[in-house]
């Protein structure tokens, strides 16, 4: 028994060690990924379930690693945040997404806002406003076609500074949405002070098994948004049952695998032909 205890311990160490090694090697590679053009943006539609049209897109980052293939943002975004690499990566993305969306608008392929996820780091860096303004000027994209998604925890952390930066961005015409709403629960008392256009209801409330028990929470989020003059997007919609229930609660705009998965640019031309007004 003494031996088996020892064994378990060494297996655990091995696992922890393997994890540590992968992290270190990914961090090293992440430092070169931008210069090597290994990042790609995919776009997931936001869908108006009454009109049956695409009303927006969310831009999501993918890393095409030369040896490991596509690496999920769940794995590399935390490393990018810890190392600060998320700042230049997001700045690259702002330029890329604005030019892409300007192209879709100019060619009359689609005229919808595209959102980009913002890490807390972006509000500490101090140059977010300038970079957003520059990306809009360079691309000639109208500001209301760009949206920034922030989480509750970002808005709450250093709230005064974040709200000041968001207000300037809003005055520029850029849209702001509160992502993963309902999972932070600390913000309710200050929600009216954060300048946002849209609340995105987190996937945990939408998941099938839980959805009926979460009905009261969902309908209250919708009521709060309505009272504060905000729009609502339900995330992680996968089934017709979820759509029916959300509709019955008055939720109109939805995002999830049922309507469309995140897609690379070359698939979106066809998507828009089939799915726009
Ligand atoms: P998020 O911002 O909450 O994005 C939604 C995630 O849910 C995406 O995962 C999306 O592919 C996934 N999703 C969408 N519909 C469904 C569905 O119906 N069912 C299920 N199970 N999942 C669905 P993804 O692309 O892997 O991104 C994960 C997270 O990584 C994002 O969560 C976001 O927090 C972060 N992330 C992704 N791209 C960026 C980025 O460019 N910058 C920053 N800062 N974070 C990013
Ligand atoms: Ca998001
Ligand atoms: Ca989300
Ligand atoms: Ca999330």
UniProtKB/TrEMBL annotation:
Signal peptide: none annotated. Residues 23-276 form the EAL domain. This is Diguanylate cyclase. It comes from Paenibacillus etheri. The chain holds residues 346 to 622 of 624 of the full protein.
């Amino acid at each position: 028994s003494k031996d088996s205890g020892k064994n378990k311990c060494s297996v655990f160490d091995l696992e922890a060690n393997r994890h540590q090694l992968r992290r270190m090697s990914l961090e090293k590679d992440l430092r070169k990924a931008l210069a090597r053009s290994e990042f790609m943006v995919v776009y997931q539609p936001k869908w108006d379930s009454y009109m049956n049209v695409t009303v927006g897109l969310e831009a999501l980052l993918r890393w095409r690693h030369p040896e490991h293939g596509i690496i999920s943002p769940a794995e590399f975004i935390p490393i990018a945040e810890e190392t600060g690499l998320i700042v230049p990566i997001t700045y690259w993305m702002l330029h890329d997404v604005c030019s892409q969306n300007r192209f879709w608008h100019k060619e009359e392929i689609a005229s919808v806002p595209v959102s980009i996820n913002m890490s807390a780091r972006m509000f500490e860096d101090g140059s977010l406003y300038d970079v957003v303004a520059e990306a809009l000027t360079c691309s000639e994209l109208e500001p209301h076609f760009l949206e920034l998604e922030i989480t509750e925890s970002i808005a709450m952390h250093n709230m005064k500074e974040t709200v000041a930066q968001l207000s300037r961005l809003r005055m520029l015409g850029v849209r702001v949405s509160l992502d993963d709403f309902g999972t932070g629960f600390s913000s309710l008392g200050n929600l009216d002070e954060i300048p946002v256009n849209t609340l995105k209801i987190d996937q945990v409330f939408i998941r099938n098994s839980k959805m009926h028990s979460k009905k009261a929470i969902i309908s209250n989020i919708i009521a709060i948004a309505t009272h504060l003059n905000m729009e609502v997007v339900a995330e992680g919609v996968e089934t017709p049952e979820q759509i029916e229930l959300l509709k019955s609660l008055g939720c109109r705009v939805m995002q999830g695998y049922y309507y469309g998965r995140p897609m690379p640019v070359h698939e979106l031309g066809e998507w828009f032909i089939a799915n726009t007004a």
